[in-house]
Specification:
heterohexamer, A: about 110 residues, alpha+beta, 4-stranded antiparallel β-sheet, two-stranded antiparallel ribbon, elongated, B: about 450 residues, mainly alpha, Ammonium transporter fold, 2 domains, 18 helices, 2 strands, binds adenosine-5'-diphosphate
């Protein structure tokens, strides 16, 4: 099994979720994160004090899938999240050594 | 405010001229009583207005100022700063009842009142101050004594101990606020000199601003100032706070007419005009120099305009107010955005930058724009250049006394109990460290 | 409030003494009309004040109480608790117009009014209650009928069905609030006994507090009470709420003078003193016993003080108010912090701990501190020990009726429709489960 | 409002009948002056109330409307929408002082006033409007000129440039608000026709609602409308906002009596009843058709009821208000929930759905329920079917002028400077893009 | 070493923490996340506009443990977090190649 | 490739970011988390009800780097985040099997 973790632009979340659902992904987990990268943030100024907003709002998606689906999932995410503007984000893939569905105790492939 | 002082202090010589403006309003308001000024009777309209004005000024401190300041601190300190306004309201009100009113408005001498009205003794339900009950006059004044130390808390936000803050506020009201209020409104020497301060530009705002500046310097900068992100955590709170300050300020300024007549109405109008104009000028200046009109900017401008019109509210025309407002917006922008960074003190929420600078501008411009037709006093533009000198005299006396006394109080308190929280507590945030609570 | 009742109920025997205090204020306020008490005319100052007082009491419920309670619940229930105050305001106002006012202030008998003024019929634009329009008097009273059931919602927060809450509130106003208000203010038997309740310590606060206690017990504890984290999610809301309650309380208490004169002014002053003093005493007690002065503590103390001074506001001196406040702060601390945990009921937001206890303390102390010079009534300290007995009598009558009736209403409703949400809904949060909305 | 206009415009023929209702209230309020209507004197009670009413209407815009709207937008746009209300308040106030008042209430002709009072020249501290100072009358009117454009911002929330919004608001006040206010209140042709609009149902709410509709269409939908989640980010703000609007509306409607007497009191009562009734009916309709009573629903209903009663507040009985409220709640539900989705425009926060529809319903029903006993005017139910026609005439004139002028202003501005932010800025959020600030 | 990551229902957090403490786990890290899965969300309606709440609030727990403890930790979490209703969540296990305690610089097993 | 995940004290974030930038790290992702460990939380008291704040605010940093840089990154984070007081946090390292830059589709080393 693999865990695909993607950092994307927040307003792309719904597109990505739909694209993944379309290829049969039945579950995923999302967190609000802040990203630092090539895309530069704005400067906020409050009564003359400048704060460089180095961190931009991003959304992190984590999807566990069977290993053979991983590439398709990565592909799908990339396509759905792409705006071709800087800051579109990254996808990383990890090995998962075990997966369990808490409700039933099913493991691995059955747990997803 | 002056017309009442007149009644309270009728032994003082120059009062009839000092109180001229307000008295004119009084005449307009209650013509039926005009012939018989020696035996005023209660006027229910004046009383109705002053009850509400008192409520409005209370609303300025809680929740107005608590919100205005609360939105500007970091999230870990928001309850603490709001608690400071709330606690000052409670503790200072008790102090005011016990000795504050008496020391401010009891006859006394040119520098301080006396203890004749301690615990409000002898002030019955039928005692009058002008055309309103004396208990109402002292309640209205109480709300002024409350907001002044609360304004100071903006300067030392995020680093002062709650215990030290409480004791400082009580001592400061006794040693600085009460004398200065007596000097200007209670028959003291500045009143006798003819210093004009309709609703507290000097007594409240310069006083608080200067005390804040001194406190910011004595306490030192916030940990991480200049390197860590100290951006306001939630300006929606500050917008609401500024709006409630504005609404409440009608009580502050128009209430200082102490009657519900033409003077109060004019004070309301000029207050609104000056606030609007200052918000406009801050916004435009910021747009030009910083590229964007910030929300913190427009509300700060409005507050700066409200501060600046405070001493002038019963003395100037709408056009005077427009100019005072426009100038105040620019001056406070300069104070909060440029001066502070230039001189390098950490006046966290610009108690000095807005209230100090705005108060100074307003005090001096009152001497410039005072119009006989409004408040019976003339200013520079009507040929009375001396009024500007008198105004500066009042400002200097206040600044000197306030700065010296504030410095000594803080230094002594620091020796006795320490006035600043530990670095760990500052990092953790005052909400949790000082009050054991957090925003979840 | 009493002076008006006098006019409305002029057939009742003991009223001239009962209403003595308020009448004194009235005399001070409108001297011109004093000779001709039989044919009062409209006083624009009194009317001005009472319009504002009505607005202020509305502001206590929405947004005051909605915020005060809203900040104390968990995030998933904040909209639901705010909606309860808002909905009660709307539904009860309609009820008040249809039959509420008539049943409270229509002549009727010693226990309940009648239907003579149902749908406010026959109350023209020129009808007077004392020196103000009767439509204004009934509007002012409407805001009292609104806030009382809204206060109860704090006791059953986070677990009562919205539908059941609405029906409960309407029935409770009919069966509990209206009769008790009639007993005390509408010419009922407690009024005739000489029970003193200037602005609703018994009618509003004890009533709401006791109903809350009963409701908390009948509904049972919140799921997870004692194990899950139920810390207030955002006390900034509660601070703002407490502040608006305080400001609005000037309308509640000083408005109950029904005139803009010395009595209203004194009621305002003692209200402010008691609130401040109670906040001070809760804070100090908590600091000593718990190590830290909490923000929730200082605002709870202030509200406790406001509750306790409510019955006394037109009868006591500022010094009396200071003592009542100091005692109320300690008593409410004890009620909310110790008693509740000792007895083990889950009065979520301390409707009983603050309003019930504060109301009890205030009702009894009114009998102790009533001063002839203020409201024309004497208390224990001026040698009239009987007043304390009378006060206790009023409290007991109210507590018994309220407790029994509330219990029955809730049990019947529970049988008919169920009063508590399902455990799943409680876990999910009432915002989503009951209203389909959330804070994002 | 009308009684004053009468004084200002005494040369106009039909005024004595038009202003009949308000004048009746005036008589009740100040009987002593009734004989001598030619030389009114200042009434301190009326003045007290009108000072407060002015403060209340200011409170409707800031913070009331700012909060009401602020809670409904997405988190990234909350400061921007609040800043719009705040900025409009500041900029329009200055405009009002410079030419606005003069063009609205200066004598002029049937369509527009003149420049005789530009810069408020010649309006001294003792000048009266009826029984209150003229500076107070113009300040009160200023708050109406402020809130009207602020209401429009709800329609184009989240996508209009701040700069364009400011210029649009100023031009719109000059070209639409001021003429229409002159037509209806300043002695213009609608006033002469006998159109009834007690406190601004047509001038304020229909005007703002229609302008909002046009703006929503001209600007186009928000990016992502219909697909992205645009749920209100924090309805606690909106609940507080709605509550403050309600409280402030007492100033709006009861203040429009311009005196503190029976008429003001009745206006307060009917305002409260209509708001409550509309909240009840929206809630019940939504509960039935949507399965759950939403919090946004109940507060929207209340605001809809407040809008609908605005033109009627000085003319109808409490029972009339009850019916108007019940109908308005249903109508606004239909407007905001059904009509908008049906027609497909994106009126973001339902400026048209609530203020437009509510205003239309209220304007027409005023012609139905006007009761001679309240305001001296008869409506359909008292046999005067013509009043409904007159009301419709007033509505049509306003809608046509407003729609055409608003359309042209926006199109011209769009050509000159562009009125919509870029898609990137819209995605990023207006807080950061336009003001360089965010909620942390 | 292993990292055990669990997605659970928020109100089960305290139970899980206590259960883990009972078997000797001394540290863990928690984040608020939103989950999409078989459990369907509510619909929010605002003035007629419907928003399908596809994402439900969940809590993510991350615990690093020595490899031999991983199975017991997974077991413990499952037991404590189970309500047997849909949406109970998942547990995933990953390999950790290195661990350091920042304060002391201790590594791997000693760092936990 | 490796993913370095660090749990640190929130006020150390800026220091860590700057230290990483100084050694050439060009991107990272940050989340607000709550930590439970040896460092004990405060007790909050609301009207006598005590809530043990078992979870303390922490910040989680995730940085994907080429494998040969991982040790240096770990070292840098530890140095920058260290206060030598309890609760400084942990660093964990994972294997990444794949990385993609969404904007360009670049993979692995080029994606970072
Ligand atoms: N090395 C990295 N490790 C973890 N997250 C990263 C890394 N580099 C970038 N990110 C995340 O990806 C986001 C987008 O990266 P950025 O360099 O701005 O644009 P792009 O992906 O288009 O090159 C960043 O905001 C950050 O959250
Ligand atoms: N494939 C997956 N990858 C990551 N997280 C998942 C995945 N499937 C489910 N989840 C998470 O687990 C939660 C519960 O899953 P759900 O399918 O609703 O119920 P259950 O676990 O009982 O089958 C989801 O809300 C989501 O946060
Ligand atoms: N085994 C673990 N798995 C995941 N996170 C942990 C673990 N142990 C500690 N943490 C995280 O590290 C933080 C600091 O740990 P703590 O034990 O308090 O101090 P220290 O790291 O100085 O020993 C915790 O708050 C938690 O977020």
């Amino acid at each position: 099994m693999k865990l695909v973790m993607a950092i994307i632009k927040p307003f792309k979340l719904e597109d990505v979720r739909e694209a993944l659902a379309a290829i049969g992904v039945q579950g995923l987990t999302v967190s609000e994160v802040k990203g630092f990268g090539r895309q530069k943030g704005q400067t906020e100024i409050y009564r003359g004090a400048e704060y460089q907003v180095s961190f931009l709002p991003k959304v992190k998606i984590e999807v566990a899938v069977k290993s053979d689906l991983a590439d398709q999932v990565v592909e799908t995410i990339c396509t759905a999240a792409r705006t071709e503007k800087i800051g579109d984000g990254k996808v990383f893939v990890f090995d998962v050594t075990k997966a369990v569905r808490i409700r039933t105790g099913e493991t691995d492939g059955d747990a997803l | 405010m002056m017309s009442i002082s007149k009644r309270l202090m009728s032994s003082l010589p120059r009062l009839s001229t000092v109180a001229g403006g307000a008295a004119a309003g009084l005449l307009a308001a209650v013509p039926a009583f005009a012939e018989d000024a020696a035996a005023p009777t209660l006027n229910s309209g004046d009383t109705a207005w002053m009850i509400v004005a008192t409520a409005f000024v209370l609303m300025m401190t809680i929740p107005g100022l608590a919100l205005f300041y609360g939105g500007m601190v970091r999230k870990k300190n928001v309850l603490a700063i709001m608690a400071q306004s709330f606690a000052i309201c409670c503790f200072v009100s008790v102090l005011w009842m016990i000795v504050g009113y008496s020391l401010t408005f009891g006859t006394g001498n040119a520098f301080i009142g006396d203890f004749s009205k301690a615990f409000l003794s002898g002030i019955g339900i039928n005692a009058l101050s002008g055309t309103i009950p004396e208990v109402l006059f002292l309640s209205f004044q109480m709300t002024f004594a409350v907001i002044t130390p609360a304004l100071i808390t903006g300067a030392f936000a995020d680093r002062m101990k709650f215990s030290a803050m409480l004791i400082f506020s009580l001592v400061w009201v006794l040693v600085v606020y009460i004398p200065v209020a007596h000097w200007v409104w209670g028959g003291g020497f500045l009143m006798n000199e003819g210093v004009l301060d309709f609703a507290g530009g000097t007594v409240v705002h310069i006083n608080a601003g200067v005390a804040g500046l001194v406190a910011a310097i004595v306490l030192g900068k916030r940990k991480g100032y200049g390197t860590e992100n100290m951006a306001p955590h939630n300006l929606t709170l500050s917008v609401v706070g500024a709006a409630l300050l504005w609404v409440g300020w009608f009580g502050f300024n128009a209430g200082s007419a102490l009657t519900a007549g033409g003077l109060a109405a004019m004070a309301l109008l000029v207050t609104h005009i000056a606030a609007s104009a200052a918000a406009v000028s801050w916004t435009l200046v910021e747009w030009i120099f910083r590229g964007k009109p910030s929300v913190l900017g427009i509300i700060s401008g409005a507050v700066g305009g409200l501060v600046a019109i405070t001493p002038a509210a019963g003395f100037v025309t709408p056009t005077g107010a427009l100019i005072i407002g426009l100038l105040a917006g620019v001056a406070c922008f300069w104070g909060a955005v440029w001066l502070k960074h230039k001189l390098g003190y950490d006046d966290s929420l610009d108690a000095f930058g807005v209230h100090g600078i705005g108060g100074l501008v307003g005090a001096v411009l009152t001497g410039v724009f005072a119009a006989e037709a409004i408040g019976g006093k003339t200013g520079l533009l009507e040929g009375n250049a001396g009024q500007v000198v008198t105004q500066v005299y009042g400002v200097v006396a206040t600044v000197v006394w306030c700065a010296v006394a504030t410095f000594i109080i803080l230094k002594v308190l620091d020796m006795i109990m320490g006035i600043r929280v530990s670095p760990e507590q500052e990092t953790e945030g005052l909400d949790l460290a000082e009050h054991g609570e957090t925003i979840h």
